[in-house]
Amino acid sequence: MAALGERFRAAREARGLTLPEVSEQTRIRSVYLAAIEEEQWERIGAAVYIRGFIRTYATFLKLDVEQALRDYAGSPAVWNSPEASEEREAAEVASARAAGKRSLAPWLWVAGILAVLVVAYLTYAVVTPGQQGAPVALASASPGASPSPGASASPGASASPGASASPGASASPGASPSPGASPSPGASPSPGASPSPGVSPSPGPGTLLITLSGTSWLRVTVDGNVSMVGTFSAGTQRAFRGKHVTVRVGNAAAVTFNADGMSVGPLGGAGVVVERTFTL
């Protein structure tokens, strides 16, 4: 099989196209297209840009995109690069962690079952106390009168005036506490608690709101100062204020904008690098 760059050049020449013509239709600079055909990846820069350009160029020439990406990843220059070495080390660390988690999984199950059994036993012991003898209320006998043997006091009989209360008698249910009693612990706080965080920024005049629906590299420059740069995941949302906001994205299909309250959709396709300046 021909080298990756040669396949791109042959497919382009077979269609009778020049590099400037392809650049105009794919929105990829001619110098980057030439770097792909010559496999001089260092002229392009970060691997995320290279993969995006290869995907777009291969799609335009109707080549096998996945095969082209595999050939790029397997080329000696890429395989021996520091970035590829870091990716392989990260993959090995992730694999080792996954193996460690799998080895610990049976012990975690056993520990979880034991914890559930202990909690169930303690709950049963607290909720089901031991049986105790029921107290018997004794009516006060009249002076000199001896109680008949075995006679038990009738339930609910009220004691005669002056009789002392039997030990352990509980207060009647529903009795209101005395004034000044301290409130029970755990009482709910008074209204007026602060609202929960996590409210997303709302677009408005003079504001550029950026929302990511997928992973993309992103650099935002506000009035000449870089305010945000790096690779961000789906769900990321940021708002910026300034006169001139320049945005450069590495995966145009995954980024949408809202400028001055007006929605602006994606600026390009998947893996396409786009740069645009918004005047607010």
Summarize it:
The chain has about 280 residues and is an alpha+beta fold. The protein is built from seven helices and eight strands; from the N terminus they run H-H-H-H-H-H-H-E-E-E-E-E-E-E-E. The two termini are about 50 Å apart.
Sequence-ordered SSE layout with sheet pairings:
Elements: H1 4-14, H2 19-26, H3 30-38, H4 47-61, H5 65-74, H6 76-79, H7 82-127, E1 207-212, E2 216-222, E3 225-232, E4 237-241, E5 244-249, E6 255-259, E7 262-264, E8 274-279
Helix pairs in contact: 1-3, 4-5
Please tag this protein with its features.
single chain, 280 residues, alpha+beta, 434 Repressor (Amino-terminal Domain), four-stranded antiparallel sheet, flat
The CATH architecture of the domain at 4-79 would be Orthogonal Bundle
If you average the pLDDT, what whole number results?
76
Radius of gyration: 39 Å
Percentage of residues in strands: 15-25%
In total, the number of strands is 8
Give an overview in words.
Helix content is 37%, strand content 16%. The chain is α+β, with helices and mostly antiparallel strands and 280 residues long. It has a 4-stranded antiparallel beta sheet, with no helix packed on it. A 4-stranded antiparallel beta sheet has the order 3-2-5-8, with no helix packed on it. Among the domains are: 76 residues, lambda repressor-like DNA-binding domains (434 Repressor (Amino-terminal Domain), Orthogonal Bundle); 73 residues. The protein contains 7 helices and 8 strands. A hairpin with a 2-residue loop joins strand 6 and strand 7. The radius of gyration is 39 Å and the shape is flat.
